[in-house]
Amino acid sequence: MFRKRNSDHGSATSEYSSPLYEISALMDKLDDLVDTSMMTFIDSIIHTISISEDDSNNNINEGGLTPTRGTAILNSLRKYRFRTTVDDDDITTTTPTTTPTKTAPTKKAPTSTDSDKTKTPTSTPTKTFRFGSVPKNKDARFVPMNDAETACFVETVRRISELVVIGESCAATIQTEESKLDNILRKLKNKKNNNEKLNDDDDDVDNNCGKDVDIQREEWEEQCVRIREKISDNNEYARVYEHFFERNGLAMIADVLTGKAYNISNFLDNRKRIVQTEIDGYNNDDVEEEDKNDNKQKRDRSESILKYLESIHETKTYTDIVLVPPLAVATQGFQSTSILVQNVKRATSLFFILSNNHINQLIDFPLEEYHIAERKKLEGISGTTPSLMSPRRFGSPELGELTTTFVSFLKSLAMRMNAETLQFFLTYPSGTTIESDMDYLEESNHEQNDHNDDDDDDDERPLDEIVSNVEKKYNIQVNRPVSVKTIQVEFPLYERALEFCSVHQDSFVRVTAMNICLNTLRLATVAPKIGDEEPAEVVVHLEAAMGASPDAVLHNAKPLPMRERLAIAQYVCTPSRVERLAAPLFSKLAQLWGVLEEQFRDMEIANKSSSSEPKTRNNPNEKVARTREIARQQKYTRIFNDTSYNVQDELLLLEDVLKVGLTSLNEQVIEMMFATFVYPLLLQPLLLYFQRSPVTAEVLFADTLNDHSLGQDINQSDATATEKAVISAPAKSALFCLSAAFQFLTNPPLLRLLFTAVFHPLSPDASGETMIRAKADVACMGPDGKATIRIDKVDENGVMVSESDRTTYIFGTITGRKDISGRRDSQPINDMCTFVLSPALSEILEFSGQDGGIVARSRHNPYRKAIFQCFTLNKEVSDLQALAVMAVYSAVSVFNEKFLADLLFGLDIKRYRDNLPRDERFNAFRENSNLDDDDDDHDDRGIGGSTISKVDSRLSLGALEGGKVGFDYMNEVIVSFESCIMNAVPGGKGAWKLDYDSLAAHALLSSIRGSSEAIVHASKAIETRCRQSAAFLADAPSTIDKFDSEKLQSELKYLVPVNNGKCEKNDLYYGAIMDMIVRKREDSVFTEVKSALDHMLYLTKDLSNKEGDVSIYIPVTSVGSYNDVAARSITYSSLEQDASQAAFSNAVESTSALLKLDAFGSLLNGLVNSKQMLQDQKLGGFIFNRSIDPIIPNPTDGDTIFSPISDDFDNAMFGVDRNDSSFVGIKTGSVMNLVGKVAFPCVCEVPPSMAPLFSKEGAKVVSQGITWQSLYLVIIDQHLVLAEPERRSRGEGRVVTICKLENLALEKDPDDARVDTSARRLILICESPDLKSPGMFRFEKKPQPKQIGPFSHVERWKSSLDIWFEDSNALQIALCKVDEGIAKAKANRGDFIRRYLSQP
C-alpha cells in the first residue's frame, strides 16, 4: 500500500537524515502534541479559577497571576511542558527539535507513563469486557487543539503508520532474502567440499567439468551479490519497525485513541512532582545574596503554580473530566492501525501486534465518550440547552465517519482470525483443560432410578432425560443432541461487533459488523473431514513462527480444535447473544414493514383521489394533468422500490445468518422470527383486514365476472378512500413481506414451518401453549462416537440436506423441559432457550394421518382461510388479490408436488378420516350447522391472542362446514384459484375487462401436479371459468355500442337488415363490432393495446413439416420474481381516456385474456389424460404439445409455459362455419355456374408464374409483352371468386382464385389518375396469417416470420392483386358491391365468434 519516498533506498529524505531518525522524531512529536494539548487544557482551568476569585485577590504580588492568559505564572507553567525526566539533584528539560540534526537518534528515556507501558505483559490478561456501559453524568470533552495542531497530529500518525508498514515489508524482504542467501552459501560450501574431494580422489579431472563448476559458482556468487545489495537497500527501513515497537508506538496510539494519554490526574501528579522538585532547588542557601532574592521570587511563583495544581487535583469536577482527541485524530488513528494490521507480511509481526493487550484496548474503544464530547462541543457552539438524547443516538457526520472507520478496524482484525491467531481473540479462564472428547459430555443431575418415582412431575423434567450422557458412547444415537460442559470464554471482538449490529446503526456499519459476526460463527462450523484426526491445540511460538502472516481471507477453512469450536459455539449460541444478533434484523424488518404500510396507504389515497376528480377529454390542461399524474406515479414507484430493496437486503442478511449452518443458532433465530415477525406482522394483519373492512360481504366477495354491478357504487358508500387505505395497508405489507420471505430465504426447516403456519389446514391452539425451555443444544453425538458441533448437513452444492420433507429442527424437545403456560417456572430462564411456536408447528407439520391427538389439540387455520379468501375479493373494492397470488406463488414454488398436495389439500387429514370407524366419521364431519358457541373451531385467535369476533360469520373465518376432518380443503384451494386466474376488473369510465393472471395459473399448476384428483377438479373449474369469461366477452359489442352508437352505425352502413329483420341486424351489427375487437386494425388509436393476434405463435418446425392448419400457441403461465412482487404492489388507475375508447380497448384486452385461459384449459386437459406428465419435473419454461411427446423443452425461455388454444376456439377465429353449406364444392380449378350470380367483368395481368392457373384456350390478349386475362369477379357468400369465362356459352366459369372477404381491403385509383385510357384499376389487398397467398395474389415481399426461440410470430401478411374495369362507372359499381360484401363477411365472422362465445 505504501511505497518508499526515494528511488535511492540508501539515502534519507530531504527532511530527515534517515527513516529511523524520522520515526523517532515523529513519535517525539506525538508526545509533544499530547503535552501541548494537556497544558492548554490546564491553562484554561487555571484561567477559570483565577477569574472566579475575589477582586482583591485577582492581582497577586509581583509577577502574580492575572485573569488573562499569558501571564508570568502561566508562562512558567508552560515551561514545564516538555520536561521528560527528573533527577533529585538536577532538572533536565527537552524541547522538541524542529530541524533534525545529523546525529543518530538516541533512545528517549522513559517517563513514568512509558515505564508503565514497558511493563505491559505480552499475554492477554483475563478481563471481563463490557461495552457501551457509560456511567451516568459522565463528562467527556475533546482535548483542546487548534486546526493546525489537529492537522499536524493527523499527518504525524499517518506518516508513522506509513513508515512502519514500509519497514515491516522491508524486514520481511530481508528475512526472505537472507534465507535465499543462506541456501546459496550452503550450496557453495557443499560444492567446494565436493570439488576438493574429487581432486583428492582423481587428479585427472575433466577440464570441461571444472569449467562448468566454475560457471555455476560464478552465477551463485552473482546472486549472493544481488541479494546482499537488496538486503542493504532494505536494511535502513527494516529497523523502523523494530524501533516503533521498542518505543511502544502501538501503545502510544492506543492510549491516545482511548483517552488514556490525556488522564488529568496522572498529568497533574507529574507536573506537581516537577514543580515540587524545582521549589526544592530554590531552597539552596549556598548562593549569593542577589541570587537568593531571585530564587525567592521564583519559589513564590512555583508555589503559586503548585497551589493551583493542587486545587485542580482536589476538585472532582475537573478530575472526573474524560478527555479524548478530536474526531479527525481518532479517525486517522484507526485508519492507520487498520492499515498496519492488514499489511503486515510476517507471521511474527502479526503475532507480536496481537500478543500485547493494545488491540483489546482498542477493541474496548470508548466510542460513547466521543458522542458525549461531540454533543457538548455542538451545544457549546450553539448555546443550546443540554440534549436528553442518548449518547448512542446522537450523531454527526464526523462521528459517523469515526464509527465506520472503527468497524472497519474490527473487520481488519476479523480478517486475520484463524486457527493460529484465535488465541489472541478468545480468552479462557485459567485452569480450563479438556483432555479427551468424553470430557465434553456433562453428566445428568437426575439418576435413572429416580425417573420412575416422580410420575407426577413429568412436566418439570427434561423431555428426554440426558441419561445417555452417563452411558457409554456407543449407546448414544448419532446426531442426537447431548448436553456438554460449559466452557467459559471471553470474545471481545465478537462482543463489540454485536454492539454495531443494532438497528439504529448506519447500514454500512451494520453490514460490516454482521460480516464480522458471521465469519466468527463459521469458525465453529468447519469440522475435520471424515477420517481426519481432530486438530490438536495450536500453540504459537513467536520466535519459531517464520512463515507468512495469515492472508486476508475472512474465513480460513482450516478446522479449529474441538475445544475452540465448542467454546465458540457455546459463546455465540447463548440466547442473549443470539438475540443481540438476530433481533436487530427483525426490528429492521418491522420498521420497513411500517414504512411499506405507510407507502401503501399514501398510494391508495392518492390513487383514489386522482380517480375521483372530474376530468373531461376537451380540458385544455389535460396534457399538463396527465404529465403530473405520470410524475406522481413515478415518484411513488421510486420511493417504494427503494423500500423494497431495503427489505431484500435485510432478508439476505437473515439468509446469511441461517446459511452459516450452526443448528442451535438457527433454532433460536427461527423461533424469534415467528414470535416477533411472522405471526404479528405477516399473519395477523390478514385477519384484521376482514374484521375491520367496512364493505359488506356481498360486495367484498362479489364475483365480478358474473355480476360486476355490486361494487359500482362503492365510492358513494360510507367507506371513504382514506378508511379503506388504512384498513388494507397492513394486509398489503404482510403479503408483500411474506412473498419476499419465500423469495429470498432458503433454509428448509424455516420454509416448511412458515408454509405450515400459513397454509396447513390445522393451526396450533392459542390457549395453554406448551413452552419448552432448554439450554442451547450446540453439540450432538457424531457418527464416530465423539461429541461434535451440531451443524446443518449440506451437499456438495452447499444446499441443506434433510431426511424428509417433514423434517425440521429439534427445538429443545430432547434436552429441554416442558412448561405449560400459567404454571410456575421450574428453573431460572437465564441463558435458557424458550421455544413455543416452532415445536407446535413442527408437530403439525409431521402429522401424517396417524396421531389423532394432534387434530384434537389444533384448530382451523384462519390464516389459510384469509389468504385464500383474498383470491376471491372484488377487485373494485380491494386490490389485495394480486399480492395474495404472489405470496401463494412464492410459497408453492419452493416445494415439491407431494409436499404441496399433502398440506394444501389436507390429504393427511383425509387419510386420518378414512381410518376412522364409520360411526366416528359422522361426528368428525360435524355436518350440523347449529354449532355451540363454545366450540373451539369458532376461535379465530392467532397464537398472539384474539383478533376477530366469533360472530363475524360473513367472512367465513370461523368454523368450517364439516369440521376440521370433513372439510373439503382441495375444493377450497381450486375454487379460490378459479376466481383469481380469470376475473373481471374495472377498466375506466364504467367499462370492465377480463384480466388473466399467468402467475396464478403457474401457482395452480404447481399446486395440483402432485394429485390426480386435483388435476381433474382444476380442469373442470377452468372449463367453467372459460364459459363464464366467454359469455362476458360476448356482451362486449353491446357495451361498446352504448358508448359510441352513432359513429359505429355510420361506419357499418352496409349492415342493413334483410326483410327488415331487427334480430338479423343486431347479429350482424354486433358481429361487426366483435370482428373489430378481434382484428384490432393497425390504424387503431390503441397502439399500446395488444390484439389477440399479437399473442399467437406458431411452432416453426410445424410450418416446415406440415401443410395446412397448424396449432396456435399462447403463453399461459410465467415464473415470478421479486420484481414482480414490487410491480404487483404498485397499482394505479389507468390514465383518463374517452369512454368509447376505454370500452373498445377493454374488449381487445379481454379477448387476449380469454385466449390465454382457453390455452391454459387445453394444458389442464392434457394433464388429465397424462397425470404423471409434470411430476418430478421443475416447473420452468416448456411447450405443451398435443402429441405423443407432450413436453417440448424451450431452451430460449425457461420462465414461460406455452400451450395451444383449443380446436373450437381456433375454428371460431380462423375456420369456417360448418352450418354454412352455400360454398360447398367450390375450389380452385373447379367449374362453377355463374347464372343468377352478380358477376363483374374485369381484366387482370397474368405474370408467367400465374399462367398455370388459366386454361390454354382462355380469353387472353398479349400486348407489349404483357398477357391480359378476362375474368369475372363474383361474390359468393363470404368469399370473393375470380373465374375465367368458359369458351362455350353455358354461363359457367373456371375458378382461378378464391379469397375470404373478411381478409380483404380495397383501394382504387383516383378518377383523374389516367387520361390515356378510360380503364380504372381496383387494388385488392389480402391480409391473412397464412404464409401462402390466395391464387393470383402476390406478396409485396416474401413473408419472414419473426422468430421467438422455437416459435414464429403470427402476423397478417399483405398480398395484393390489381384488376381493371372498363371505366370508372363499372369500377364504382363493383367497388360498392365488394365493399358491402367485405363488411358483411367480417360481421358474419364476428357473429360466428359471438355464437361460439355465447354457447352454454
Q: How are the secondary structure elements laid out?
A:
Layout: H1 19-52, H2 72-78, E1 83-86, E2 91-93, H3 112-118, E3 140-142, H4 147-201, H5 207-246, H6 249-258, H7 264-282, H8 289-314, H9 316-319, E4 322-324, H10 327-343, H11 347-355, H12 358-363, H13 367-382, H14 397-414, E5 481-482, H15 492-499, H16 507-525, H17 562-572, H18 575-612, H19 622-659, H20 663-692, H21 697-700, H22 721-744, H23 748-759, E6 762-764, E7 770-774, E8 779-781, E9 787-789, E10 817-820, E11 833-835, H24 837-845, H25 852-857, E12 858-860, H26 862-869, H27 880-892, H28 897-904, H29 907-914, H30 918-925, H31 963-966, H32 969-981, E13 982-988, E14 991-996, H33 998-1008, H34 1012-1034, H35 1036-1043, H36 1045-1051, H37 1062-1078, E15 1097-1099, H38 1100-1105, E16 1113-1118, H39 1122-1129, H40 1139-1169, E17 1182-1184, E18 1191-1193, E19 1200-1204, H41 1207-1214, E20 1231-1233, E21 1239-1245, E22 1260-1263, E23 1266-1276, E24 1279-1285, E25 1292-1300, E26 1304-1308, E27 1320-1328, E28 1338-1339, E29 1347-1348, E30 1351-1353, E31 1357-1365, H42 1368-1398
Parallel strand pairs: 3-4, 17-19
Antiparallel strand pairs: 1-2, 5-8, 6-12, 7-10, 7-11, 8-9, 13-14, 15-30, 16-19, 17-18, 20-25, 21-23, 21-31, 22-23, 23-24, 24-25, 26-27, 27-31, 28-31, 29-30
Helix pairs in contact: 1-4, 1-5, 2-8, 4-5, 4-10, 6-10, 7-8, 10-14, 14-16, 15-16, 16-17, 18-19, 18-20, 18-22, 19-22, 20-22, 20-26, 22-27, 22-39, 23-24, 27-33, 27-39, 32-33, 32-34, 34-40, 34-42, 35-37, 35-40, 37-42, 41-42
